[in-house]
Amino acid sequence: QPGDRLVDVGCGTGRNLEAVRQRYPDARLFGLDAAPVMLETTYRRFARAGLEAPLLAQSAAEALDLPQQLGIAVADHMLFSYSLSMMDDPALALTRASSALAPGGSLHVVDFGPMDGLPRPFAVAMRAWLARFGVHHRPLVAATMRQEAQRRGGSLQRRRLAGGYAELLRLQLATPR
After folding, report:
1. pLDDT per residue over 23-36, tens digit each?
2. pLDDT for 96-127, tens place per residue?
3. pTM beyond 0.85, yes or no
4. d(CA 4, CA 74)
5. Of 52, 70, 75, 90, which residue has the fewest beta carbons closer than 10 angstroms?
6. Rounded distance between C-alpha atoms, residue 95 and residue 114, angstroms
7. How far is CA 88 from each of CA 2, 48, 56, 133, 134, rounded to the nearest angstrom?
8. In angstroms, rounded to a whole number, what is the distance separating the alpha carbons of residues 51 and 42?
């Protein structure tokens, strides 16, 4: 909705934020990343595209503190796109993100899956390639989101993509009556 606050946690190069800005020009966008070079890349991306840049802050996801870092009390949407698989403590990052959601808010996650539905040689090669960069499937992501759905009185949707190459999860909090 116009005015909704979306925080991309681990925003990287800002590719997702740019896509959201183009599709939802009236949304309030924020990005958080631990690497200053990624935030600089995001600013340049928005400048090249002639788009209003999101408010960006440098921080690890595990230290998420919206009021201090981004000047907002809560977010309507939190997004983790292929970033949890690289974090030291993805469960803590998800718990902090869930706690920062407004009533009726949603937490969106897409990340690498177990790849158990892919042809074995391809899955083995893909896992080995990702491991070179410290990236791997985190089974505790779905379990943590399930716990957060119960704790916050929300629901969880989970979908496997491309033979388990990736997982799409969405925690939706109840809207107050």
Report:
1. 999 999 999 999 99
2. 999 999 999 999 999 999 999 999 999 999 99
3. yes
4. 10
5. 52
6. 22
7. 34, 33, 21, 13, 10
8. 11
